[in-house]
Amino acid sequence: MALTLAELTETGLRVALPTGPAYFNHYWLRDACPSTIDAQTRERVFDIAGLAQPPRARAARIEAAELVVEWSGENHVTRLPLALLESVAMTGHAPDPAALPQRLWYGDHYPHFARLAQADVLRSDDARARLARALIEDGIALVTDMPDSDEGLDALVTALGPLTATAEGLHFDVRLEIAPTNLAFTARALEMHTDMPGEDAAPGIQFLHCRANTVDGGRSLFLDGAAVAEAFAKTDPEGFALLAEHPIPFFYRHDDWDYRGHQRVIERDSRGRVTGVTISQHLQDMIDLPQQLLDTYYPAFCRFLRMLQEDRFLCRFRLNAGECIVFDNHRIVHGREAYSAESGTRHLRGCYTDRGALRSTYRVLAARGCDGAG
Ligand SMILES: [Fe+2]
User: Fold this and answer.
1) Whether residue 242 is found in the same domain as residue 287
2) Residue 1 within a domain
3) Dist. CA 4 → ligand 1 center (Å)
4) Does 341 lie in the same domain as 255?
5) d(Cα 291, Cα 109) in Å, to the nearest integer?
6) pTM above threshold 0.85
7) Of 148, 233, 257, 365, whose CB count within 10 A is highest?
């Protein structure tokens, strides 16, 4: 027997979900009807603005774990699973296997990085899901046993998503150059940074494949910018608010390019949760916030920069030939100690895919039953 557990209001329905009562707007309910999605293309084929009158429920009930809505003004019935409505009521969106909480990490994390062999990632959905999941949760993973070839890196990247280009093209090589376009291509220490903040959308997931490393020095430096930002929020909420609210300018320019973009130093999602950071003092432009605002912004920025240098956050390790460090460029801050150029060879080959592609891959794998957990 149908139970009447949905109450009509002027603008929507109050539904007695097993998790508690929740309100759903009429437009949203009509637009969420499964019939709006074409079975073949799986794209939306419904124009809510084309309805003769605003959507309004004539009757609604709960029946067999579904909300059933009969619409006035059109001969149409919508059935929505209560599980979907519960997810929307609890999280604001439909269930998303890729919406995994971040696992913040600190300076002792290097031994705990997820480690997967390149061949396993290419061959096994489960290994690929474990890599994708580690990149979503930890923002970093180490792929081992890389073939010593350009193709070996491309195969790894495309297992997660298509290569995305930057000013440097699809790939870049981090080694000594006679006329470097970037401090990375020298033997100097490379301060902690995220890549390409001068682009409108800085690249998402970065791969650095170590092809050779026989030099003295040059240890890699990595930290979890989200962990630092969360710590900063606790000790310095006013400073946190300034850095999370006001975008500042970055650039990337040389003979043939002149990128300029604004980014917030602390990045949050639409629900206000910290997702990462953008830091690059060597690609930071003159800050163009109002001068009076700089009276508080700059001291807060300096406090955050000093926190980023605290040892408790920093992993220092040597990247070895045959390893590829993979990390979320919007969250993980990286750098390098100086090295002795005459002591050997150091060559990292890098490229990117985007975060949307990573999450897409993870969702597809999760739908096949490979969630990469455990
Ligand atoms: Fe970099």
Assistant:
1) yes
2) no
3) 59
4) yes
5) 40
6) yes
7) 365
